[in-house]
Every structure is written in C-alpha cells, then in structure tokens.
Here is the input.
Amino acid sequence: MPDVLTLREAAAFLRLSERSLYELARGRRVPAAQLGGKWLFPRGLLERWLAAQADLPGTGQWVTPPPILAGSHDPLLDWAVRQSGCGLAMRAGGSLDGLEALARGEAMAAATHLLDPDAGTFNEGATRETLSGRGVVGITWAWREQGLIVAPGNPLGLSAVTDLARPGLRVAGRQNRAGSHVLLLHLLTEAGQRLDQITFLPQPALAEDEVAAAVAEGRAHAGFGIRAEAAARGLGFVPLLRERFDLVMDRRHYFEPPLQALFAFARTEAFRARAARMGGYDTTATGAVAFNL
Here is the structure.
C-alpha cells in the first residue's frame, strides 16, 4: 500500500464510503490534505488516527480536556503558542506536574523533559509510569542545550556541575517537580556531589527565565538552565548536555484543532528562524513522534 492514499484507497482502507470519508476530511476530522482539487491521505497518520479511535472508553464517548498545555516552561514554546493563535492556555508547573495534570484530564498536553537515567532516554519512562494503560504519544518539540547560566564572560571560571558547590556561590534553583531540577540532581549524583552541598537561593525559580533573571540581577552567581535564556539576557553559558523536550498527549487528542494549529505553525520558516535566533535549539525533529505507548 502506498504511503499516500487517494480518497478511494483511504475509504477502502477504513471500510467507509467515499462520501463519508469526504465529509470527515472536509470537516478536518481526519488527517488529510487537499492538493490540486484532490484529497490525499498520509497512510501513517491515518493509521495513528484509526488507532486513536480505538482508545475510546466503553461508553462510546469521551470528554475532550480543556485546551491547556501544562508542564515545563520553554520560551520557544511560549512564543509559538502566542504566534500560532492555537488557543492553548499555558499552565507551567514543572514536567512532573504536567504529566499528572494530563493523567487527571486537566490538560490536553504536557510539556516535559525528564531523563530516564537507566535507559538514557527522555520522557518515555516518566510518561509510562504516570499514564500507565493510556494510549499516549510523545511528540518532539525540540532538542535544547542545558548547562550553567553564568555572568557575562564567566568571571568565576565555572566549567562543571560540581563547581556549583563552591563555598560562597549562590545558585538559582528550580522547584522539585521541574524537569531541570530532576536533571540537575542526576548530574550531581553522577559526579558524586550531594544536592545539600549547594547554596541555593531561598525561593526556587518557577520558570526558565527566572533562573536567568536571578543571575542577570546579581542575586545568584549561577543557575542551571537553557542556553536560550542565557542568550536573551546577554549572559554566559557553559553547555553540559542536550535534552529532548516533548509534548505528551493522548493519541486521539493529537488531532484536536489547538494542537494541530500549534504543530502546523512549528513547520513554518518563521518558527525555524525564531529558534535559530534564540540559540540553543535544534528543531530538526520538531513534530516527529518520539515515542508511542
């Protein structure tokens, strides 16, 4: 079977009449594209759409969650949500909180960047644990550079995560449920350093930009965060690793208009140009399926 199906081929594949499938396509209720006056159907997307319908509860109905994107903060994502006009509301609270909000039906998708140290992968392990038994998919948003945000020119010569434990060094930390905190804890453990050896500011930063703000304003000597926020404030940056930032959702909700509008915008040149200007992003795989559970 070809990768792209005609209306007749797709109708036969789905065991629908051509008229029924035409109405679904025209109503944007099934993945399709109209080119040269003809409807075409990507077979891979069609298969995922069909699998999503099989996830319906036994009542034959489902309640669409509110158009909320919960979880981790990312400046490129914030910008894209606004510019795309997708209608999603942002509810930042950390990667773990985002997955739990998704599990409770309080959000349409969760933004997350949680490392599974044993598998060496991102997000799949935490998603499997939190959303066990659910038909969920993780869609890559971007790869990001994580590291140390420092003053311009890095006057203290910080070069490794263990340098955060230097006596007298004030560090901007994140809340415990944030993916950046979980990642920092992993890096410290790998380096044989304890979290309680670091002098954090009394109040944790609740978003990526708050980490950079603390360093820029002199309240902290350093913080653990992403290159894009350091660049936005003219700060120094010491790269430590690349991480994958995903949007996790029930498979059937991938096809909801808010998420489709967001991913459509992420395929534009304006999006790619913005990511390049911000720095620290690799959007080559944006929109690709990272995992399917």
